[in-house]
Amino acid sequence: MLNSRESHIENVISTAESSKAAALSRLAASWTRSMAIHGLHPGERRAPERVDQANLRERQQREERFTDIAAPYLDHLFGLVGQPGCCVLLSDAQGVILDQRINTADSDQFREWGLWKGTDWSEKAEGTNGIGTCLVEAKQTVIHLEQHFYARNTGMSCIDAPIFGPDGSLIGALDVSSARHDHTENLNVLVRALVQQIARQIEADSFRTAYAKARILDVLGASGGGAAFLAIDQDDVVVGATRNARHKYQLGGGGIIMPQLVSEILDTDDRPQVSFEKAERTTIVQALTQHNRNVSEAARALEIGRATMYRRMTKLAIDPKADDLSIH
């Protein structure tokens, strides 16, 4: 008769090797990736992989703004769920833990299990797990006990939410991991909602910090998909958007967005009254934006001569070659 460890290993292998299972289940698809793509075996007994201290420091320095913004939220979340046997973790986009909140009494055990800064929890390293699978799928993920790929990880429950940066790209995962025997699937539902909410708050603060000089417009209000913010410069050109706003207005999944007028995106012309000079400057910047900074085409659209266009641009300190047209 198979013991629980052997039974888990057999179940993972048979499911991952099934020709149909991966298409029917997110969990089965992750188990299949773990075996077929990453070459892992569920019975592996090796310790979790950790990056060296120099590598960890480099990652932490690179993501310092992100971790600084997240830190008070980690404290808050740990205050709510941080009973003995539970921890709060923050990873980067590659699945390496950058920061943690752990009870002192759990430190030795959690360090051994890899619930510690510097551990690589990517699917490539650990197979199906909360952090790694959340990052691969870019979706909120719960991996409860035997849903883990490795048999050695089946004593944990992991609840994760992805975190998207100011440019809409995936920058990390927020994780609550528990090794408590009384941690049930019903409790996972409650913790999941909390993790999702706090991840979205980190995203919102990151966006506001990145676009501190812009006007932030909430275009959807509260929603399950997180904040839907547009960052708008002084000339009413949209210079940034959260992932939720990008999806709604088809602005691209991540990276730099093509500058567009807010009136074009929102189909509204209810901009506030401004001074004549500012209005003139805004009109010229908008014309340049609409015509990919081609001065001749922008002048033609405004029905003024090219020489006049250059004179007005000089007076208003508008440089069509500048990275940001709004700077003057």
What can you tell me about this protein's structure?
- With 328 residues, the protein is an alpha+beta fold.
- The chain is elongated and about 85 Å long.
- Residues 269-274 have low confidence and may be disordered.
- It is 45% helix and 15% strand.
- It is built from 14 helices and 9 strands.
- It has helices at 4-16, 21-24, 26-37, 53-62, 64-81, 107-113, 123-126, 130-137, 185-210, 243-249, 262-266, 276-290, 295-302, 306-315; strands at residues 86-92, 97-102, 141-144, 157-164, 170-178, 215-218, 229-232, 237-241, 260-261.
- Strand 1 and strand 2 form a beta hairpin.
- It folds into 2 domains: 46-208, GAF domain (Beta-Lactamase); 215-315, no CATH class.
- The strands form 2 sheets. It has a 5-stranded antiparallel β-sheet, with helices on both faces. Strands 6-7-8-9 form a 4-stranded antiparallel β-sheet.
Strand content: 5-15%
Portion in helices? 40-55%
The arrangement of helices and strands along the chain is: HHHHHEEHHHEEEHEEEHEHHHH
The structural class is: alpha+beta
Strand order of the largest sheet: 2-1-5-4-3
How would you characterize the largest beta sheet? 5 strands, antiparallel
Q: Which ranges are low-confidence, i.e. pLDDT below 50, for 5 or more consecutive residues? A: 269-274
How many DSSP-defined strands? Answer: 9
The fold-level CATH name of the largest domain is Beta-Lactamase
Which CATH first-tier class of the largest domain would you pick? Alpha Beta
Average pLDDT reading: 88
Task: Report the radius of gyration as a whole number of Å.
Answer: 25 Å
